[in-house]
Amino acid sequence: MKRLLLCYAAILACLLMGQNLWAMETEDCLGCHTEVDEVGESNAIDGALFSGTAHAEEGCNACHEVGEEHPDDGEEAQLVATCADCHDAITETYTASVHGENASCADCHNAHQALAPVSLSGIQMNESCQGCHGSTEVEETHARWLPQADVHIRSVPCVSCHSSSEKFVITLYVTQRQGNRAYADYELLNYDQLSQRVDGAAVTALLDVDQSGEVSLEELSEFYKDSERSGLRLWAMMTPETVDHDFKTMDNRWDCTYCHAAGPEAMQDSFVAFPAEDGSYQRLPMQKGATLDALFGTPDFYMVGSTRSKVLNIVGLLILLGGLAMPIGHGTLRFLTRKNRK
Questions:
Q1: Distance between the two ends of the chain, CA-based, in angstroms?
Q2: Whole-prediction pTM value?
Q3: SS3 string of 116-180?
Q4: Is 8 exposed, middle or buried (0-12, 13-18, 19+ CB in 10 A)?
Q5: What pLDDT, on a 0 to 100 scale, did the predictor assign at position 21?
Q6: Are strands 186-188 and 168-177 parallel, antiparallel or unpaired?
Q7: Higher pLDDT, 298 or 91
Q8: How far apart are CA 72 and CA 96, in angstroms?
Q9: For labelling, which of 42, 47, 98, 295 has a CA lying 20 to 30 Å from the CA of 323?
């Protein structure tokens, strides 16, 4: 019986040691590769961003192989995996696209910062495209046919029109004029800038005052009442929930009604995205229909053919009825008094 217990204890100790060794492998890598001075800029990674990716769950040795004496052996780590090993369907779709012959996965994606679209801002999504497509060139080519091309480019990520990505939502970001100067362009606020605004509270408390996990119309109203003093505003982008890799110009995206008539359906679900300390973004849902209400929702955001206001609808209906009442009333009166005129 004693020997059996000792055997069980030995097996358990081996298992626990194995788990610790496995868990330490990635930690050992990050111990050096998060320090630029240790490994050089080309081999350094952002440990905070990497820890939030699906790749971190697989561990460094899922893609890299090193010798037992690394780094003392002077040998560089060997890449033993390809993107296609895990992302075979995406690879097949991307290879068949117009980009397949011009850029590899690594040209657009940093494997150590591979975050889901919902954890990125729309501006971060576009940064991958801007590596080849300069913003000035893009704006000039779109302006040949697209009204207010600059506004569209700042409000819609490239993949919303140049891939078959669907399920769009309106995502709002907290912005401030550069240097808080009058008439300067607005820029996204980072985590540190927002932290200074909430006095140690969570950055989401800037809008979600009661920390309920949802931004209500009342909380939006309070934010906008204070925006004149704070200089903050919300900038909206129509972002996809998932991104396809069949990069091309979709035929139906040439049609303005794709967004401006179908908008109300997409805009029922909207979010405010707050920067996290690691550089990713955390989304909070807004009360349904908030971006559809021009007066009591998000007055900084207006989408032609989509944004609505119940108050303005009623006022408009009354104006229409008032305009019709005069000719109808005048015509009716003339009809009823026609005999007197004879």
A1: 125
A2: 0.74
A3: CHHHCCHHHHHHHHHCCCCHHHHHHHHHCCCCCHHHHHHHCCHHHHCCCCCCEEEEEEEEEEHHH
A4: exposed
A5: 37
A6: antiparallel
A7: 91
A8: 43
A9: 295
